[in-house]
Amino acid sequence: MLAVPLRPFCAFLAGLGLLCLAFVASWCQRWRGGFAWDGSARMFNWHPVLMVAGMVVLYGAAALVYRLPPAWRGPKLPWKLLHGALALTAFGLTVVGLVAVFGFHNASKTPNMYSLHSWLGLATVLLFSCQWLAGFSAFLLPYAPPWLRALYKPVHVFFGSTILMLSVASCVSGINEKLFFSLKNGTAPAPYNRLPPEAVFANTLGLLIVLFGVLVLCALAKPDWKRPEDGSTDTRQPLLGTER
Amino acid sequence: MLAVPLRPFCAFLAGLGLLCLAFVASWCQRWRGGFAWDGSARMFNWHPVLMVAGMVVLYGAAALVYRLPPAWRGPKLPWKLLHGALALTAFGLTVVGLVAVFGFHNASKTPNMYSLHSWLGLATVLLFSCQWLAGFSAFLLPYAPPWLRALYKPVHVFFGSTILMLSVASCVSGINEKLFFSLKNGTAPAPYNRLPPEAVFANTLGLLIVLFGVLVLCALAKPDWKRPEDGSTDTRQPLLGTER
Question: Which portions of this protein are annotated as coiled-coil regions (chains A, B) (predicted)?
Answer without folding.
Answer: none
